[in-house]
Request: fold
Amino acid sequence: MSAHFNQATVIGVGLIGGSIAGVIKARGIAQTVVGVGRNKDNLEVAVRLGLIDRYSQDAKKGVIGSDLVVLCCPVGSFEQVAREIKPYLKDQAVVTDAGSVKGRLVEILEEIFYLKARYVPAHPIAGGERSGAEAADLKLFQGARCILTPTRHTDIQALEAVSDLWEAAGAKVERMDPFDHDRVFGMVSHLPHVAAYAMVGALTKMDGGEDAISYAAGGFKDFTRIAGSHPGMWRDICLLNAGNIKAALDVYIKSLEALRGLIEAGDGDALQAEFEKAKTIRQKIK
Reply:
């Protein structure tokens, strides 16, 4: 681990933020770790668990003196938070994030931090349905992918420092273009979450669906598990990556309509063929 900071600030001390704050503190990546958030009780839990050294409920005060800042707040608040903290940042501080949307948002943050801080966009592919500092797990990122999405404006030394940070957390670091990132994750992450929310919503609209929920097990529980994720976070993701999610939904809806047509036609052979193709592809996912 080559990167070392005097002070790190993590804005948003939930599952992801609390976990990376704990890694930074446990691995000695920074001498002091400051947590920032709105919920005082949650921040005090983070101190008690040893994830952070101290906290502030004011992001502007929380970043003063830090040479590393990690944005782990809701991705929809990134732009506002970036504008708020910019005047208080240490010159040439490294700023990174854990947001699951990149694309145009990366360009906006680069414009905000230009000549003030060195911004490196990142997206650790880890998480869960639990939230808050109590959900933090220092092993959360071990073996997980972390996608860095640098641009031609990204400072090389800052990029290496952020790469070192996530490798210290146990992640497998990869690099991708910000807009390619949003297209890929619009298909493999954002679409499934929207589909899971839609599935639960559809059941409640079916005749007898509310009563049927008590019998839900196996397939329904597995398919809709991710609908237990934070609604506000997924609202932001849908709004920020709307174009890619809409394109993925269009194809998914056509696929559903095609299956409905085969069911209506009673075409068992065609149905089985479709299911066999899907099964083969699914078995390749590890």
About this structure: The CA atoms of residues 203 and 209 lie 5 Å apart.
